[in-house]
Model the fold of this input.
Amino acid sequence: MTNLASFVCGLIFGLGLILAGMANPAKVLAFLDLAGKWDPSLALVMGGAIAVATGAFAVAGKRARSILGAPMQLPTARDIDKRLVLGSVAFGMGWGLAGFCPGPALVALGAGLPKAVVFVGAMLVGMLGYELVNRALADAAQRPQPRTH
Amino acid sequence: MIIDWQNFTPWSSLAGGVLIGLAAALFVLMNGRIAGISGVLGGLLQPRAGDIVWRLAFVAGILLAPTLYGAVTALPASTIEADYPVLIAAGLLVGVGTRFGSGCTSGHGVCGLSRLSPRSLVATMSFMAAGFATVFVTRHLLGA
Done:
């Protein structure tokens, strides 16, 4: 049942991205181009989404389990650190270069655009690279540190 | 600042945003999870038993969205100006960046801000600022 809910939510999410204009990188870049001919449309996407989702998250925050009985898994991290900021900056640079963030890139992949295949491939390589580096760092942290003089 | 009124699509963008918000709302209420695309994808790259099918189902829903949309009405144009080397660089940055930053436009931007998370607010301001700066450099300083 939760898998069906996941599928339906992904579908609604994707339809929303298309209707909103987010799946068109040219429109995303026009939104990010403050100094050029600025298309403010995408500010309304975020505004509309947040207006609808805020109430649901307030309700979810008070529950231990979801309606379908799954454990409520809301993020608990609160630290604002270098990792968060530098990672987000790198993401923003990539977003500004191509006009794709992960969701719209998947929509474009689903539409069969060859350039989306390349972008999503590179994105997955980047994510995999992160996993490998992260695992290596975690292993290194567990090993006894060599003494330095 | 010059506003591009010709391409301004307030109603469809607002309606699309409402659908995105609805998906995020249903997802947390039904499944107790954050509809963050980079997080959903990232979890598939470090697969754990019992934690795979829902992720694949969510991704399948997104992938099928253009087909369903196109069956009902004409898909809006999607113009990708970037050439292949730029797409590769951008994809790598988005992949590494969203995992280090623990989220993207959906996880931090939509879900995080809806949860009033200060951490997501900082992340969102960081990637928005970097996005604005990158487009300024590529379009107005380098003139690409």
